């Protein structure tokens, strides 16, 4: 039976700068004993999503449903929600200080929490509190139970909070970056503990993290989020070995390999977009090496892709191109090139515009930066000045130089069309032009000038 | 690549045996921070043993990775080398000259050669100053360039680290985390230093941005022949960037060696535990490896354990570990470059999660999750 | 938790480079310009600012204004300004705000009183800020013995009995505008010093200060280039709140006859002399008090508004409500 069923959850926050669309349409189901990993970078909406489910986002505009054992958490009254929170759904946060009250003893807080949900004597509850502290590895728990939070070290506070969230044997445990602030050896303890709990009590877990390693360790299914949307969903093996979405692939590729191969890392270019003004079409398209015209205009839906039965991805690339590396990447490349028209070719421009406010200097850095370094690494020291001068005089960049040892051929191919496409046409001019363009273009971020398009195309053919 | 370029990049990892001369040598470095109490007359009530006797050598052109958990003293060690704190004991020599506790004036010429990149891209840039002036600081302070020349050089630097030189006049708040870190890199690079100490340069960045900055650092090393001390708690990042690695625990170096030796055949039980605890972004490998679960947290450096500081958590600890700190030396068949400070180093193939300590470690804390009964009584 | 969410949103907004909308507000602007943009949305603060600007104008053009009214502040109108029984006249078309006990125009005197109040308030605060920032920065930056010494000094100043000191000083030196300013600055600088010290303690630990030190910057340079600019926001807010304190101090001194000597009109000495006739001529007490009240209130409200405008985090929280 499904424990949690979230359908089309949308959350936005009105701010003085505009509406922040933190979550835009998330659906998933979770069975008892299952672990769902939600992966994303800061601002991807991964935390907001679960906070909303727990009724912890005040002042937000929320739509959708989140059925927990048949009851909708989103429309539930505060009192009912409070009963569920703690007793049936436990939460672990990244920052333990936010959930431990500094003025009360740690033990008392656990006792209080147990007694709020269960009819049990203080003595029995205290004994449980001690046992719980022992469970999470607190030394001398019978003495520590009378300490105040500030007498605990950071790691111990985190443990105490975990003890608290486990106290009532919740059916669902939501862990929001539970181990980010912890050392790896402690992180290993906590992950191990969560795994034992699942084995013993069939607890369902939602693990929110930016660390692909943590998810690879313990998740059954993984949802990758980008700019408030789920972009890919799959069981962890499929996700790691046969990803479909270029963002997932980019994330996996950007981590240093476990074998310690040197070579260059393959970062995802550019910066995450603003949740206030998202790029048109697929939010990832300005950073995507496989951008096609369709990506700029249409928002890709989550589609079933080749792989496993439950593998879904929100990308316009053909559904059968899954995986990482050589062959598949080349195929993706071919498809993308074939379907890339003027719109997509301009997308290297869009990277700029996404980063950049209207009417101000284009924020080329992310892009140019990546570009500069890509090229820069092969240039001798003396060329630094030359490069700077070239940027100002507006000479086109020389063609890409041979890759450094360790960089694979694939990288060269994928990097070439889009990234090399932003040559240093005088940064100043480009900026000035963009200023004009964006002024005339009003609010549309994707408006670009034909000239720039040409240069992009030249760049890609060079 | 021109012939003049030193061939000391990562691509030629084997180069490290023939790497340059010793650029930096740290001997017996100690740093204790006093904890004081009292309103008018302050009395020292305790000491934080942040760095507790560290010997280190960095050769020019190489990258030395420094790993360890919170409170292991890696950041303090970095600041001792950079001359930001006076040392309690020990010596630092740079390029043949002793720079231990130099006066500000005498240290000045060395400041040009030793630079730092900081962890927090938000905290390391003064929010009230324009980027151009931040990057131009080194020129100002050392009277290298001013006016138009300074601006020109700042813009060149911005170009080098991949920032738009036109953004000279912006404030740090107008840049994203990754871009700010590039600003910090540009500032560190300004005086063409020989040694750059990178203190957790990517820990505060998003995964996809981390790789951008690591690549940048990599490029700069090749381009300018830099030597790095790279501090991080992320072991896979350290493995990626370093030629040699030193593992620190409570102010002491537990194990050091060439990166492949150390990761391939970790000798110290702590290194073993650390490596086994790193999440691996590869489900098959993650499933197949055995995690070593340690007891408790890193103890407080105010009262570090006697003997080997790891003994309260070590699965192989015996009585001697409580009494004596083992010397840092090669064990078993290890080459002289791979040194371990352990009475009972881990031979190849031993599974230390099966070991039981010969001493009482209950003070460290119970094993996590040993007894789940506290929960079963729940609802 | 909402806090975390706020941070995430904040990061979104703070990460200027990466998102279009907020940067639009920020582009190339100094933090103070940003604060001004925020302040402009705050109606109360704007109104207060208006009141203060008006007051300043009144003080600057006091002579011209009283010329316009036609009643110099020290001119005694024995006939029009006093009732036959010798009591002050009520507000009328002749004296808009009534007259005082010797037949002077209360309005003219309030206008001229604004001069003294603002002069003392602003100058004394300026001195206090100068001393306070210098001492506070040194205490916070150097720490250790220097900090202990300077902090205790500030404590001593804060525990000094203000009035006793003022009375004895005036008794020795004689009352004057200069003495008033000196006494007030003397008593309020330690407040600034304390606040600044606290701020510097946290700024000192920032990585950018460490970065400057690792570059070999001198202490003086770090203080001037890296520390003090970051004090601008709290100091602006605090001085805005300190000006009314100084104004009230001045009024107190004048009230006690220790301030600017008569016949120069000040709000304080007007309130003092009105005491004898306040039952018969309440306006004489009311209007100078009202002037003092409005001025103090305007500065205080503006100070609060500035605090919100200069502290972006506070502003963000507001935005989320």
CATH architecture of chain B: 3-Layer(aba) Sandwich
Count of distinct strands of chain C: 0
The top-level CATH class of chain C is Mainly Alpha
The appropriate CATH architecture of chain C is Orthogonal Bundle
Largest sheet of chain C: none
Q: Please estimate the helix content of chain C.
A: over 70%
**Range of helix content of chain B:** 25-40%
| CATH fold-type name of chain B | Rossmann fold
Rg result of chain B: 22 Å
Oligomer: heterotrimer
How does the major sheet of chain B shape up?
A: 7 strands, mixed
Mass-distribution shape of chain B: globular
Beta-strand share of residues of chain B? 15-25%
Written account of the structure:
The complex is a heterotrimer of chains A (462), B (379) and C (321). Chain A has 462 residues and is of the alpha/beta class. Chain A has helices at residues 46-53, 78-87, 106-117, 122-135, 141-144, 154-166, 184-201, 212-218, 236-241, 246-254, 293-297, 326-338, 342-345, 347-355, 365-376, 383-393, 409-419, 427-441, 450-461, and strands at 4-15, 18-30, 35-39, 61-68, 71-72, 89-92, 172-176, 204-209, 221-226, 229-235, 303-304, 312-313. In chain A, strand 11 (303-304) and strand 12 (312-313) form a beta hairpin. Chain B is built from 12 helices and 11 strands. Chain B starts with 21 loop residues before the first strand and ends with a helix. Chain C has a single domain (43-84, 93-320), classed as MetI-like fold (Orthogonal Bundle). Chain C contains 15 helices and no strands. Chain C starts with a helix and ends with a helix. Chains in contact: A-B, A-C, B-C.
How do you describe this structure in short?
The complex is a heterotrimer of chains A (462), B (379) and C (321). With 379 residues, chain B is an alpha/beta fold.
Main traits of this protein?
heterotrimer; B: 379 residues; alpha/beta; Rossmann fold; 7-stranded mixed sheet; 4-stranded antiparallel sheet; 12 helices; disordered N terminus; C: 321 residues; mainly alpha; MetI-like fold; 15 helices; disordered C terminus
Topology, pairings included?
The complex is a heterotrimer of chains A (462), B (379) and C (321).
Chain A (H helix, E strand, L loop, with lengths): L3 E12 L2 E13 L4 E5 L6 H8 L7 E8 L2 E2 L5 H10 L1 E4 L13 H12 L4 H14 L5 H4 L9 H13 L5 E5 L7 H18 L2 E6 L2 H7 L2 E6 L2 E7 H6 L4 H9 L38 H5 L5 E2 L7 E2 L12 H13 L3 H4 L1 H9 L9 H12 L6 H11 L15 H11 L7 H15 L8 H12 L1
Parallel strand pairs in A: 3-8, 3-9, 6-7, 7-8
Antiparallel strand pairs in A: 1-2, 1-4, 4-5, 9-10, 10-12, 11-12
Chain B lengths: L21 E16 L5 E17 L3 E5 L6 H8 L7 E6 L2 E2 L5 H8 L2 E4 L13 H11 L5 H14 L16 H13 L5 E5 L7 H18 L2 E6 L2 H7 L2 E6 L2 E7 H6 L4 H9 L5 H6 L30 H5 L15 E2 L32 H4 L3
Parallel strand pairs in B: 3-8, 3-9, 6-7, 7-8
Antiparallel strand pairs in B: 1-2, 1-4, 4-5, 9-10, 10-11
Helix pairs in contact in B: 3-4, 3-5, 4-5, 5-6
Chain C lengths: L1 H13 L5 H7 L4 H9 L3 H18 L1 H8 L36 H37 L1 H16 L2 H12 L3 H28 L2 H8 L4 H9 L4 H24 L11 H8 L7 H29 L1 H9 L1
Helix pairs in contact in C: 3-14, 4-6, 4-14, 5-6, 6-7, 6-9, 6-12, 6-14, 7-9, 8-9, 9-12, 10-11, 12-13, 12-14, 13-14
